[in-house]
Every structure is written in C-alpha cells, then in structure tokens.
C-alpha cells in the first residue's frame, strides 16, 4: 500500500459550505434562550430564576477549589513559566495528584466528576495565576480525548482510555493543518483502511495544543470512500507514541509561552479500527458537538482575567497620584475602571449562566456557548488593554523588569499577550460571527431556504413559498408589540426592569432587521459578513444584559452583595445599550460597499505606491509550509513528563 501524495483537496466555495452544513447539528430538540432572542422572542423564563447547582455538586466543587487554590499558591510559579517558556514537570505532576486532569471525567472512571460550573471556576482560578496552565488543562478536557469519548465513545473506549486520562495522561486535539484553518472541507490528512481492523494515517497537523507532551490524541483525518467505507472526515484516538508520529516543532507565540503546542507529522501510522470514534464521516459533527460546551472554557478564563484586572486597577489607581489626587479620581481613568468592573461582572454572569444551563441539560446551549466565547474573548481583551493604559508605562513594562527595579511584579503586558489568542482559538471572532449567524437564521432557512437554493426546481421553490408564507404570517405580527412596551413589565427586577424591557424591545427590532436583510439580499445574505457580524454582536450584548440582570437578582434574593450587584448590572446595561444602539446604526449606515472596492484595489496592486518608503524585515520562505506526506526529516521534540 503506497502513502497518499495529495495536498489539501481543491474545493469550491459551495462544496466547502456543504461540508460545514452537513457537520451542523440540524435539529433543535430543546429550547434555546439565545435562538429565541434572535427570533424576537424574549424567553426570560428559560433563564430566570437563575439555575443553581445541587448541594452535593457545590460541596464537591468547593472542596476541590480549595485544594486547587492552595496548590496554585504554592505549586505554580507563574514567573518561572513565563521566563522558561515551559510548565515544569513538578507542576504537571502536582496537578495530576490533585486529579485536575480528570475534573470532568466520571468518578466511575477515576475522575472527579465536577459540574461544568465548577470545572469552569477551576479554569478561571488556575488561569488567573498562569494562563498557560489553564490552557493545558482546558485543551486536555474541553476539546481533547475525554469530552468526545464521553459524548460519542464506545463503552470499550471509555473503559480503556478514561481511567488513564483521569490519572493524568495528557491529551490533545488535532484538526488544523498548515493549509487548512476554518475550512475543514480541504482537510488533507488521510486515514486509509488497512483491512477490516485498522487505518493508516498520513499527514501533518499544525498548532497541536498539548501535542508536544500528549500521550493520547484526537485526530481528524479523511477516510477515502471505497467499498464498505462511506468515507469522510473521521475522528480517531491515537497513541502519541505510535511508530511514525513525529513532533517536528514546538511552536512559540507572542503569549502563552508555556503552551506545549507543536507541529505533528503522521507517516504510515497504524491505528486500530477500534480506536475510531463514531462512524466514518462523523468527525466534524463530533468536533462541533464537543465544542458546544468545550467553548465555555475560554470565557471562563476570560472571566478570571477580568476579575484580576479589576483587582489591579483598584489597587493601583488608588495608590498612584497625579495632580494632587489618586488617578482613579480623574474621570478619564475612572471611566475605564467603571468599564472594567461592570464588564468583569458581566463576563462572570455570562459564563456562570451558560455553565449552569449546560449542567441542567434542559436547554440547547450551542448558541449561548458560542456567544459566551465570542463576547468573553473580545471584552476580556478590551479589559486588559484598558488595564495596561491605566498602568501607563508600567503596564507596558514586563513583570520581571518591574521586580528588578524594586516594584511590584504586575504582569499586565503578559496578560494582554496571553489573552490575544482567545480571539482566534476554537473559532476566530470572524468565524464565530458566521457560525452564530447561521444558527440564528436557522428558522428562516428551514422554511424559506429552498426559495433561494439554486439547486431546487420551480416546484420545490413553490412549495417552500407556501410554507414560508404561513410561517411569516404567524411570526411577523408578533414582532410589533411585546412586554418591553409595558411600563411595569419585569417589575420584580426593580431598577433593572427597564433594561429587561429594552432587551425585549430590541430583540424584536433585531429580528425585524434580520428579516428585512434576508428579504433584501436573499441568497447573497451569506456574503454580507460585516452585516451578519453586527447582528451577532447585538445578540451578544442582549444575552449579556439578560445574564447580568438575572445574576444580580439572584444575588439580591440570596442577600449576597445584592445592592452592589444591582449597581454593577445597571452600569453594564447602560454601557451595553450604547454599544447596541451604535451597532444598529451601523447595520445600514456603513462603508461595507466601499470597503469591498478598496479590497479589490489592494489585491489588484492599485495602492502599492502607499507601501513605498519602508523595508520588510520578514524572512524568506513560503507563506504556507509544504505538507507533502512522507517520513519526517526532523528530530522528534515530543517530551515525556517525568
């Protein structure tokens, strides 16, 4: 049997969309607060009263957090990790001893069985000390081997792998390739059947978080269609020590310097068929379903970062004086502190609500998790940027340099670098906009999609027209009026009721804008990515406003910081309303058409004169490395944790 020699398959835009669409979870068997929100239906009953964890889950979760906090205080040297760009073996072994690698694994397999809520709180805690350690644990459990096995693995696979993973066998997720990012239709790594009991893997994977030290890998590879094999992108559990696997490089980044992220080559790697997760062709669906809750780990880390930024901003802005008073008392700085405090409260509210909804399993949270990831990564980056600005030159100076001259070693610039990747990890902001937009308009496409589908004949379009007519005759009148126009609505929320009325009114306004855009652009709607991005951003603000109001009311009802929580929620909602109103204005008043013309000019070389007068310090080499299958010519840099 010869190794395949093809590079990434050439696919059309339409073919790529078809692959992505086939991987989507098509059905909605449970209600979704966010889905309803985009449809103009404010279902507050789905999130209020705020869901709460069971007493036993709280007991086990708090007990573990106490142990984890003690370990982080004594066993995690964040400065050393940043300095040496590596998490020490003793730190990893300490986490193993705590059971931190089995936080989400069922106790019957040796794990801790924590809820999503407490798992995310653990990640926020660890990430506040060292984002690199947080990424290690998150990549292992949120997208690595444990979660897809939990959801899709056979009992034999669970029995074989989950106990190892709970004990600390580190796992990694391998999907991205040097020539394949968010377009999985072009996946080039192959898994060729070898008889009935095995597959042979060939290909190269890029940005394999944890891949440098992993023992077990989830690998996505394309199985060629043949007799007895339906083929398609398929998921496999692969032993990292298998012959033919070479970690060719440990990648280095602007942040997360302790991240064990590499380039992994597979050359004739034999994988037992028993290690295939699910049927052939189900790999992308498995990946996307895993991410429905797996994405919550990033906003958890972002929430932790926001809380740390608030602490530093409070302490520094009270200590630092300029022109006779603390800098916090100057309005230019004070507005930044208010933004940090209000948004930190919102980030925690969003991730806790989404996490608890995941634990309840009463709602479909695929959109909520995606919104939490999108909103958390964008807003945490803004918070960190504002902290650096408040700290001034000290914000730009490294913690090591600050300590060397006798000042407190505050790693503000490191946090800014570490957080930046969250806007790219597990779906970039741009991809998240498109993913969420697709789900948000799913109801419309379900009834009217055939009308704009070029592959449908006239009879099919006619039937779709009748179906759509009935749907919109029932739906559109409901967007005219609602609870948001009744002065006393949501009165139990006190001073926050006005914000919930705004959310209800604006939800209907958002649905009307989406319907108008679909009517106007029809099949070209998918090309209006800037417009769709704004639609999604409005939905994200409305979701965040809902979350903070529900959380503030929970804290008031339990007597736990109720008054200050209401104050933070009020300020956040007022800030969010300003952002939302601006986004609505930009739906129709923007430079999108002009931007496309400028892009055409840039690509055509019209503006190359503007590039004159500078030198390009970039090195030589191709933009994308060669990924031709074959044996590795480089030394294996995989390392084993002692």
General description of the model:
- The protein has helices at residues 13-23, 33-38, 55-75, 78-84, 89-98, 116-129, 131-143, 146-152, 155-167, 283-294, 297-319, 331-360, 366-391, 393-396, 399-404, 412-420, 429-440, 442-452, 458-475, 497-521, 529-557, 562-588, 592-604, and strands spanning 171-174, 190-193, 198-209, 216-223, 232-239, 245-250, 261-272, 276-277, 321-322, 325-326.
- It is α+β, with helices and mostly antiparallel strands and 642 residues long.
- Among the domains are: 55-284, Beta Barrel (Butyryl-CoA Dehydrogenase, subunit A, domain 2), CATH 2.40.110.10; 431-594, Butyryl-CoA Dehydrogenase, subunit A, domain 3, CATH 1.20.140.
- A hairpin with an 8-residue loop joins strand 4 (216-223) and strand 5.
- Helix 12 (331-360) packs across helix 22 (562-588), helix 13 (366-391) runs antiparallel to helix 16 and helix 20 packs antiparallel against helix 21 (529-557).
- It is globular.
